[in-house]
Design goal:
mainly beta
């Protein structure tokens, strides 16, 4: 399974201060080409997952981490543990977020935007959170 450590993908460690002392870290988007008969599987641990249908031939994932406790350094430490893993074999693209801080997650939330061609079969395996799907 190919993996990308999300800390390396942080856009210049962009940290935006928002009200209530929250820290928001935006990761670099990842994109994969898919064929007309591909299937897409998304494994998402906990958080808010938004799936949008597109008319293209790419699957795109954007992740955002929001920390409401601790400071920027603590949020970056937790974010460095996250990995976006994928396989693209046998007509199936599988995307999985690994490394969610299960025992150190108070005030830590993960949000993802996944854009998928509307003609493809989509399977979402998700823990606790909010799932929104548009146009599929």
């Amino acid at each position: 399974m190919k993996s990308l450590v999300l800390a390396a993908a942080l856009l210049a460690s962009v940290a935006l201060a928002v009200p209530a002392r929250a820290v928001v870290l935006q990761t670099e988007a990842r994109t994969w080409k898919v064929g007309p008969d591909h299937r897409v599987r998304v494994d998402f641990p906990v958080g808010a997952l938004h799936v949008q249908a597109t008319d293209g031939d790419e699957v795109r994932v954007e992740l955002q981490v929001r920390c409401r406790r601790g400071g920027t350094a603590d949020c970056q430490r937790k974010t460095r543990r996250l990995r976006l893993e994928h396989t693209n074999e046998g007509g199936q693209l599988r995307i999985k977020v690994e490394g969610y801080p299960k025992f150190d997650s108070k005030g830590f939330s993960l949000e993802a935007l996944v854009r998928v061609p509307r003609r493809l079969a989509l399977n979402v395996d998700m823990g606790v959170g909010e799932l929104k799907v548009d146009g599929m």
